[in-house]
Design a protein that fits this description.
It is a single chain. By secondary structure, the chain is mainly alpha-helical. The protein has a single domain, classed as nmb1532 protein domain like (Four Helix Bundle (Hemerythrin (Met), subunit A)), CATH 1.20.120.520. The protein contains five helices and no strands. α1 runs antiparallel to α4 and α3 runs antiparallel to α4.
Length: 151
């Protein structure tokens, strides 16, 4: 499995979950709780596998080092927002505003990854390295998803 294709597929899942949440109002408690639960799990697993497997490989290359450090910092902001949202009532105006800020941060991060980081990654890594990273990302994703399901 191509590492960048796997991650782009994750990005599409996350975008679909945001599309589910975005039109809701404060009255849509059940819809918000379910969609946010899925979104949080997807983002938790996705950031974990990138930080554990992809980012260390890209940090080794001069061409991708800076953008990778930026990605780590963007993940940090996303994790803080997710944690704060998880502690707030979904029927509040504050939750609505914070969810929008999360969406904007994630969309910015995805755009940078897909237009810059992944493009540079394809230039500095061999096809074999990209396939190996994909296999490792897939395995770690399965493990992390299983662990999240047990929690």
């Amino acid at each position: 499995m191509d590492a960048f294709t796997l991650l782009k597929n994750d990005h599409k899942k996350v975008a679909a979950l945001f599309a589910e949440i975005e039109p809701t109002t404060e009255r849509a408690v059940k819809t918000r709780e379910e969609a946010f639960g899925k979104l949080k799990e997807e983002l938790d697993v996705h950031t974990h596998i990138e930080e554990k497997i992809l980012y260390p490989a890209l940090k080794k290359e001069a061409e991708t080092r800076d953008i990778t450090f930026e990605g780590v910092e963007e993940h940090h902001v996303i994790k803080v927002l997710l944690a704060e949202l998880a502690e707030m009532p979904v029927d509040s105006e504050e939750w609505t505003a914070k969810a929008k800020v999360l969406q904007e941060n994630v969309e910015h991060h995805v755009e940078e990854e897909e237009t810059k980081m992944f493009k540079l990654g394809r230039e500095v890594l061999t096809h074999e390295q990209i396939e190996d990273l994909g296999t490792r990302l897939e395995a770690e994703k399965s493990n992390a998803s299983a662990a999240a399901a047990k929690a």
